[in-house]
Amino acid sequence: MSLVKINIGPVHPSTHGLLRLVVTLDGDTIVNVEPHVGFLHRGVEKLAENRMYMQIPPFIEKCDYVAKTAMDEAYVATVEAAMGIEPNERAQYERVILLELQRIASHLLWLGAMLNDLGHFFSVFMWTFADRDKVLKLLEEATGQRMFYVNMRLGGLRQEFPKDFEYHVLDVLAYLEKRINEYESFIENSSLFKERMYKVGVLSRDDAINLGVSGPVLRASGVNFDVRKDKPYYVYKKLNFKPIVLYNGDNFSRYKVRILEIKESIRLIREAFKQMPDGNATGMPIKLINPAPKNKVVRVSREGPRGEIMFYLVADEQRPYRLAMRTPAFINLAALNHIAKGNKFANLFPIIGSLDLVMADVDK
Amino acid sequence: MIIDRKDLIDTISSFKKKGFSYLVKILGIDYIDYISVLYILRNLDSDEEIEIEVHLNQNDLWVPTIINIFKGADWYERELYEMFGIEIKGRKVRKLLLEKFSENIYPLRKSFKWGTK
Asked: How many CB atoms lie within 10 A of CB A85?
């Protein structure tokens, strides 16, 4: 049979942003997928060379508009490393709590969107969206903003957690724990779900390493690497954190890794609140920043919800000389062709969904 | 470690054999006198990382492709080609992010000023 080429996107409900795919099909089987990206390219790396250090977080956050704090924190931690500042212990705990809350919010949105991609589950999207909103309310309470927080300051946060914040968080976590168990039990029993998830889009361990994917996609293929465990930062060492690793490398494993990560995050936040010492977590006001040492080179890795975020900074006094970013969705999308080859066309969108793409993150 | 361009393939494949099997990132930095290309590799067992650096003269911008060693290098190399105009020898590279809208524009070079076209 002759090969057929199909163009999908750039505007398409299942591509999670502006992503164009040119798919070559043999009958119903995918022979090749060629992603065309760049519709959201803003030149963040160049822009960063033209802004002062603390002018950068507001737009670096938008590189991952689903997990804002993760980007923001990774960037600020890079600047801190260049300037030799270390946040105090309370600030470290507070950052970990915000990061883990952000991870839960991001995974909840992913869960709804992914099930929507399967074509049958729009109500789940509504439910997870409502649950995510509860987490966003907490983040709003802590930071003052609902979506883009710009909450990290050198050496701490812009503001302390409000009074009673702990109790509000614990309430929501108890609720979420119940909800996640509910989701798991009824989603996984659906035959439609099983058909699209089990043994679909398999990525073997060796290929996952060779392709350089990161985060849940890497861990679903049986690679035990999590920046929080292997290159621990902040107080993750004290929190007795265990990375979630599964071995099948299919859509289901990628789904399950994220579900288990939500549960692990819930546990981490509870533990962090128990251990958190008193003190003041407020960081430096933006106006009081000293110049950074010239030509200092730092590299900082963080485990974001989508995978490894890495910043490589060559410092100048007032602004970065060069700020290079490793954004996780960029390289996870690059692996799409390899994962999707040989699958049926109907399974393409579940596979894209399982990669958890954010196009602003890919296009930079 | 800074190495010569002609040793790049050998060095990277020897590190891969030693267990540095994960390519974290390829990035370029324009130091005006030269452009530096960095390959960051990681050993997933011991969590060690290594930076392999190549300095390129501004008149002679090319690096050999490492796509036969790391498949994940594909998009990084395309980005490098597009943002710095560094030719990738050994493969045909198509532009990635800006595609056809950027003839002879290399945005991450220092000679390209922000706000110009």
From this structure: 17
Do B70 and A212 count as a contact with CB atoms less than 8 A apart?
Answer: yes
Q: In chain B, what are the domain boundaries?
A: 2-101
| ipTM reported for the complex, 2 dp | 0.90
C-alpha to C-alpha distance for A200 and B21, rounded to whole angstroms: 26
How does DSSP classify residue A86?
-
- Mutate which of B1, B23, B25 to test chain A, going by most A C-beta atoms within 10 A? B25
Q: What was the pLDDT predicted at A103?
A: 92
Q: Please judge whether B107 and A225 are an interchain contact, meaning their C-beta atoms are less than 8 angstroms apart.
A: no
- Please report residues of A whose CB lies closer than 8 A to that of B76: 331
DSSP 8-class letter at B96: -
Q: Token match 């000023």: residue? A: B113
pLDDT tens digit sequence for A149-181: 888 888 888 888 888 898 999 999 999 999 999
Which domains does chain A possess?
3-363 (1.10.645.10)
**CA–CA gap between residue A232 and residue B47 (Å, rounded):** 11
- Cβ contact B54:B43 at 8 Å: no
Residues A122-135: tens digit of each pLDDT = 888 889 999 999 99
CA dist B10 and A83 (Å) reads: 36
CA–CA distance, A321 with B29 (Å, rounded to integer):
9
CB count in 10 Å sphere of residue B8 = 18
* Pairing of β B62-64 and β A20-26: unpaired
Residue A326 to residue B44, Cβ atoms within 8 A? no
Outline where DSSP puts E strands in chain A: 3-8, 20-26, 29-36, 152-153, 156-157, 297-303, 308-315, 320-326
Where is B2: in which H helix or E strand? strand B2-3
Min Cα–Cα distance to chain B from A21, Å: 13
Nearest Cβ partner for B108 among A46, A312, A331: A46
Residue among A284, A269, A281 nearest A90 (CA):
A281
CATH 3.40.50.920 fits B2-101, yes or no: no
Gap between the Cα atoms of A251 and A336, Å rounded: 12
Closest partner residue to B114 among A50, A231, A326, by Cβ?
Answer: A50
| pLDDT tens-place string over residues A1-15 | 688 999 987 887 776
The CA-atom distances, in angstroms, between A53 and each of A41, A47, A97, A257 are 21, 11, 24, 35
**Which residue type sits at B37?**
V
What is the token pair recorded at A64? Answer: 């991952």
The predicted pLDDT at position A260 comes to 93
